[in-house]
Amino acid sequence: MRLRLTVLSGPDEGVVAPACARLAAQGAAVLAYRHDGHSWSRWLDSGGGCRVARLGEGDRTSAVLRDLPAAVAEAREAVAGPDLVLRLPFAVDLPQVLDEAGELAEVDAVVVALDPERLEDWLWDPAPVDGLPVGEHLVDALSCADTCVLPAAGSGRGRGEHLLAQLAPRARAVRAGGKPGRPEFRLGAGGYDVGEVIARLAPGAVTVPVLDESGPFRTAVVRARRPLHPERLARAMPAMAAGSVWSRGRLWIASVPGNRVVWRGVGPHVSFEDGGGWDDDGLLDPASPDGDRRGTVLAFTGDEVDKEELRAALLDCELTAAECAGGPLEWADYPDPLRLARALPMPAAPVGSIFSEMTEENR
Question: How many domains does the chain have?
Answer without folding.
Answer: 2
